[in-house]
Structure formats: structure tokens, C-alpha cells
Amino acid sequence: MTRASICTIGDEILIGQVVDTNSSRISRALGEIGVRTLRMLSIGDDRTEILDNLRKELSLSDIVIVTGGLGPTKDDITKDALRELSGSAGYYTHEGQLEVIHRILASRGLDVLDINRAQALVPDAAEVILNRLGTAPIMVFRFGEGKTLYALPGVPFEAEGALPDVLDDIRAHYPLEEIRHRNLMVYGIAESALSKKIEAWETALPAGMHLAYLPDPLTGIRLRLSLYGADADADEALEAQIGALKALLGPLVYADADDRLEQVIGRKLKAAGKTLSAAESCTGGEIAHLITGVPGSSAYFLGSVTSYAISVKESVLGVPAETIRDQGVVSAAVAAAMAEGVRRLTGSDYAVATTGLAGPDGDGINPVGTVWVGVASPQGTVTRQYQYKNDRKHNIQRFAASALDFLRQIIEKETGEPA
Q1: Helix %, strand %, coil % for the chain, to 5?
Q2: Quick one: DSSP state of residue 222?
Q3: In degrees rounded to 5, what are phi and psi of residue 210?
Q4: Helix or strand or coil: residue 406?
Q5: For 278, left (φ over 0), alpha (ψ -120 to 50), or beta?
Q6: Residue 300 phi/psi, 5° resolution?
């Protein structure tokens, strides 16, 4: 299998000032075309470190993809290091990239300075793939023994924009083993318990098939089944295994593609012609944020109330003061009253509500990490309690995701729209 190393360059990565999202995005894209990512590393803005590390990665991998260090400022030293690495005698101006630079700066009402023109200079051993989204060109260096280095800009949307052309170039120069993937999205079970539940099925997988567990607090666990060296019967073989896995997991599966809970809920609501609203306390608008992040959500999401204060729960949502006094704010009764209140307020078919303790402080009654979720619909109101032991940020994410999954189950039950 063709192997790759991914290198990010820049002190801002090493000191934690900037989060490296490029490496994961590039690795996923490489995996989709049958390239195995062997190593990922970050390198500071030091010429010797850049050269030493890139030489090492070229010795280990067939492909090295570099992002960062290609800007117009003095600390961007990658390009000159690549000139030395490639044995280039000097630079040449790539006229195509220079035209892009002129176009981009003109669209911003800016003059083209010498520092901008210098970005179109590339080492004479470099081939160039146009960067249509930015000023730094994508450079390709071909070494002996089938080794290739791709230098991409570090700006994430520019690096992502360069990927299709880079992948096309890889396909043109390397024999790639075909890989097929199928995903199942699972919620409501811990990764360890899930592994135990499907242990016998996983052990019996045919040669060439591999299962990956990809957990996320907002989406649950994505199970990715991959078949390496795929042939004409690959899709049929994958579907057979996916069918068996779905039968094992039942309602834990909320999608058989790489979906998110809020996307699945949106499709179910649209298919059933139903609407939704939300009342949030401990989640502070996270549920509404997730739902409205789906394009077209205005077709089914009517609105939300972030009723953080008790006074808002009572005056806006109509939660009875005696319910809060007798049952406590973090209770099934309050979650139910919040859901019914926002459903009444907005006129929606469904409503979801949360009340809980994200932390770090508790209420002296419930442990931190407790949330009650209420879902109101034309068929009545139901509640469920969840408890987590994370920090505040991750508790909020898990509260929101659990509320969405509970809502999903109710919608499926009442509308007949299964996963």
C-alpha cells in the first residue's frame, strides 16, 4: 500500500495557538483513495528542523504532504528549505499563480506589492498546482524512487481546496489499492460496551475487512467498516456485514451513513411534515445551534427559548413555581413543563427541553453531570434522565446529543420513520 506522511509547519501549532485541522482532513482524504497515513508530525519554524524531518519522512513514506510556512512574512521559511531539499538552483515566477494573486488582491481593493509577487516565485525543481483560493502556490517536488512531496498552504480552507487536485495527481502517479467504506452511526452505548456486544461479529470478519470505532460526544460512535483490495463483489460483501451489524445493534443505530443526529432528525421531521421547538437551560442553546446548523432547517425548526434563569422558566415557559419548589429545577417535572411550555408557545408538533447540571457546581441534590430531557408531542410528554462525568464543555455536548437522540427515538416511534 502507498504510504504517506503529513507534516504541519509553524511555531503556532507547537505552542497550541492554532489547532491543526489540516492533518486529520488530509489523512481522511488519503484513506478514501487507498493511501495509508504512516505518520503525522508538527515542525517549528526552524530551517534545520524542517530539512531534517522532511528528509526522514521521505525515507519512510512514498508521499509527504506539507502544510504551512508558505506565506509572505519573514517567518515563513518553508519554501527556501524546500529549494535546498530539492536541489533547486534558484526560483522562477509561476505566471499562473501571479495572475491569481493579482485577481485576489484586486477583489479586495489592494495593491500588489513586491512581497505579494514574491509568493509566485517557486524553486525551479517544483511543479505547480494553482492555488485558486489564496496567494501561495501548491508545489510538487518529485524525488527518485517514486517519492513525492506536496507543499500546501497552511490556511485550512486553502489546504482543503487544494486536496482534489493533489489527490488527482497522486492517482496519476501511484498504483492505489481500492478501499470501500461503509458507516453506521450509533448512539446510547459506551465504546467498551459496544466492542463487547459485537465482539463475535467483529472476530468473524473476512480477511481484508477492518472495523474502526470513531467516538464523538456530539454524534456518538461512528463505526466504519473498510474493505481493502476491493473487487467487483465488494459492495455486496460490505452490505451483508452491515446488515448483520444493524441486526445486532437494533435501535442503537440512528443512521447507516456518515450522518449526525440533527441531520437525521431534520429528515424525519420533513418526511413527516412535522415541526420542532426547543427549551434549553443547562445546554444554553447548544441544541438550537446544532439543529440550525443543518441547511434547510427553517422548514421544520420554529425556534427556541434559552430559559437559563428560573424566572424565565416561569414567566416565559409557564413552568409552575410550585413544581420548581417541590420537585427542584433539575427534575423530570420541570423538563416536561419546559417542553410543553415551548411547544405551546411556538405551536410546534414536537418540543425538546433540557434542565441539568453541567458543572462545575452542583445543587446539593443531584450530582454534577445530571440532565433531565423532556420531549412533548401530540401523543404526550415523556422524560428521561442521563448522567455523565465529564468537564462542563463535554457535559453540555453530551446533554445536547442525548436530548437529540431521545427526540429521534420518539419521532421514529410516533411517525414510523425508522433509522
Answers
A1: 45, 25, 30
A2: E
A3: -140, 135
A4: helix
A5: beta
A6: -135, -15
Query: Helix or strand or coil: residue 394?
Result: helix
Question: Which residue ranges form the domains of the chain, and what is each CATH number?
Answer: 3-173 (3.40.980.10), 179-255 (3.30.70.2860), 261-415 (3.90.950.20)
Task: List the one residue out of 258, 263, 181, 268 whose CA is nearest residue 221.
Answer: 258
Q: pLDDT for 201-238, tens place per residue?
A: 999 999 889 999 999 999 999 999 988 776 778 889 99
Encode pLDDT of 135-170 as tens digits.
999 999 999 899 999 999 999 999 999 999 999 999
Residue 120 CA to residue 114 CA, distance in Å, equals 10
CB contact at 8 A, 174 and 182: no
Q: How many CB atoms lie within 10 A of CB 389?
A: 11
Backbone angles phi, psi at 64, to 5 degrees: -120, 125
Number of Cβ atoms within 10 Å of the Cβ of 77: 16
Q: What is the DSSP string of 53-67?
A: HHHHHHHH-SEEEEE
Closest to 225 in 3D by CA, of 184, 188, 176: 184
Round to whole Å and give the CA distance between 281 and 395.
13
74, pLDDT greater than 70: no
- Euclidean distance between CA atoms 287 and 292, whole angstroms: 9
pLDDT at 41: 96
- H/E element holding 9? strand 3-9
In this model, does residue 181 exceed pLDDT 90? no
Q: Indicate the pLDDT class of residue 193, thresholds 50, 70 and 90.
A: very high
Mean pLDDT along residues 130-138: 94
pTM beyond 0.90, yes or no: no
Contacts of 188 (CB under 8 A, 6+ apart): 220, 252, 402, 405
**Distance, CA of 169 to CA of 177 (rounded, Å):** 16
Q: Tell me if 171 sits within 8 A of 33, measured CB to CB.
A: yes
pLDDT over 60 at 304, yes or no:
yes
**Residue 239 corresponds to which cell in the numbers above?**
452490505
The percent of residues above 90 in pLDDT, for the chain, comes to: 87
> Using omega within 30 degrees of 0 as the cis cutoff, is the peptide bond preceding 360 cis?
yes
* 91 pLDDT higher than 70: yes
Q: How far is CA 331 from the centre of its chain?
A: 33
- Among 151, 6, 156, 18, which residue's Cα sits nearest to residue 78? 151
| 64 contacts 23 by C-beta, under 8 angstroms | no
